[in-house]
Amino acid sequence: MADLLDYLGSPFVLRALLGLLFIAVNAGLAGAFAAFRSATFLISGAAHAALAGAALVLVAGGALARTDISPVLGGAVFAIGLALLAAAARDTQGQRETDVTIGVGFAFSMALAVLLISLIPDQAARVWGILLGDILLLSPGDLWVLGLTTSLVALCFVIFWRPFLFITFDLEGARAFGIRTAPYNYLLFALIGLSTAVLLKSVGAIVVFAMLAAPAATAKLFAGSVWRVMVYAFLIALLSGIFALLISNYLRFSVSAMAALLASGSYFAGRGVVWLRERQVANGV
Amino acid sequence: MTREVCPSQGAIITAQHLGYSYPQPPTLALTGVDVQVEAGQFVAVVGPNGSGKTTFVKLLLGLLRPTEGEVSLHGRPAHDTQGGHHHCIGYVPQHRTVNRQVPVRVRDVVAMAAHCRYGGELSGAEVRRRVERALEMVELSDLAARPFSALSGGQQQRALIARALVVDPLILIADEPFAGVDARSSQTIINLLQWLTDEKSVTVLAVVHDINPLVHFLDRVLLLSTRMVAYGPPTEVLTPTHLNEAYGRAVSILVCDDGFLHPLTEAEHG
């Protein structure tokens, strides 16, 4: 017990807990709206676009590249860029081509990242660190970036809550009722891209989807209102992280990987429960 | 406020040589539409699939900008979204086109439009009162707290009509409000639309696939087949010549005791 208390009281675990709180807020906001918009693929795409941005900052060098937060900022620019392209994408018939744009952007960014990393082999570990992430390695500076960005994202959702909800439910209807939908649509996608990028240092590009999108996907299976989806997504992300921290104290697993495993596992468990319920209803139980 | 730009008498909707072509590849969706809709009229837009009905609605709502001619609401170009005349419009989309991934409650759907239109002008209590009144009008008060996606197609359509009514529109534009709607809900919707035009002088323009349940209540019919085939009172538009021109040989026409010609759509044949 004393070992556990020592572990939980250590600075890196306290920073991880605070980081988890910020991650959970992002899951409840950006993750939920990505799920509502059926744009969860954007989270994977933006995460990998961020790798290219981080690599570009390091290749550019200079004073900025020597700071801890520069790869994250570079990544955020690329992630938001891809998100904006996805929001704007339409084919020649005016139909949305969000998925295609994200997919192509994903491949383009990964190729660019690998190419750029080959130019700076001595700093490759910094970029690959973003690919894998580790919540126990969050520095106070990382926490500041995560906290400020999360506050910005939350503030935007508070201010623009109603137009965000309207355009998500009925984009064309919102335009017909006089909302200038394009700026809100771009802002919503940009916030999803930004949330994704700032989570990379803690959970990594590979599993960020599990911490951002999976909790909302699970919540949608059970929640009957928008607020409940957001609260459930927040709790699933937070509890997955806390359990992962506790488990990792005993089994020495990667906390980020374990948290992602629990968060994404909750989705499959949820689907199982839904399937069982439907089966019971079908059998008249 | 901006509703002052919406006079409640005279020509409400005016289209002159209206047309629209989609770019790349250039595809003509609609051409040669000349209509004038007066205040309080009930107008149906009919035609076969791909005849330009939805394009016409999008032009009216300002979602598309005409590539030919012009369309105006209260004398202002429909695509001029800053003109204030959009504050006079209530729009009812097909219930199948909204995003059911969002678990919103029925009263939240209706409140969206009220908040959007009135912003901070109304208190929360007044918005709730208007939402309840709109839900009463479509007979959905009992289901106000239910998730929208849990309703039947007809109930969802009525909820979307309530969303349009909550802003007290002078013009109600509905895109296929009877699509996927059962007979009971259809009758509720028809009665409501008729009441709006007769008692509230609301101008109603509805795109419909099957005109037959509505035909007795209509003031005007716009028959489209990529171009305007005819526009006028139902008895003048629903003639064998016009219907055959619009639908080709795919349509059968019933002459009923009510004195109207009833075109039978493909679905009814099936």
Largest sheet of chain B: 6 strands, mixed
Structural class estimated from helices and strands of chain A: mainly alpha
Strand tally of chain B: 12
Could you state the CATH homologous superfamily of chain A? ABC transporter involved in vitamin B12 uptake, BtuC
Task: Give, in order, the helices and strands of chain B.
Answer: EEEHEEEHHHEHEEEHHEEH
* Neighbour order of strands in the largest sheet of chain B: 6-7-8-3-9-10
Global shape of chain B: globular
Please tell me what the overall shape of chain A is.
globular
CATH class of chain A: Mainly Alpha
CATH level-4 homologous superfamily of chain B: P-loop containing nucleotide triphosphate hydrolases
Q: What kind of oligomer do you see?
A: heterodimer
Can you tell me the number of structural domains of chain A?
1
Reported for the largest beta sheet of chain A, the result is: none
Poorly predicted runs of chain B are: none
- CATH uppermost class of chain B: Alpha Beta
User: What CATH architecture label of chain A applies?
Assistant: Orthogonal Bundle
Report a brief summary of the structure.
The complex is a heterodimer of chains A (285) and B (270). Chain A is mainly α.
Explain what you see:
The complex is a heterodimer of chains A (285) and B (270). Chain A is mainly α and 285 residues long. Chain A is globular, with a radius of gyration of 19 Å. The model of chain A has no long low-confidence stretch (mean pLDDT 88). Chain A contains 14 helices and no strands. Chain A has one domain: Orthogonal Bundle (ABC transporter involved in vitamin B12 uptake, BtuC), CATH 1.10.3470. With 270 residues, chain B is an alpha/beta fold. Chain B has one domain: Rossmann fold (3-Layer(aba) Sandwich). In chain B, 31% of the residues lie in helices and 26% in strands. In chain B, strands 6-7-8-3-9-10 form a six-stranded mixed beta sheet, with helices on both faces. In chain B, a hairpin with a 4-residue loop joins strand 1 and strand 2. The N and C termini of chain B lie far apart (50 Å). The mean pLDDT of chain B is 85. At the A-B interface, helix 9, helix 10 and helix 13 of A face helix 2 of B.
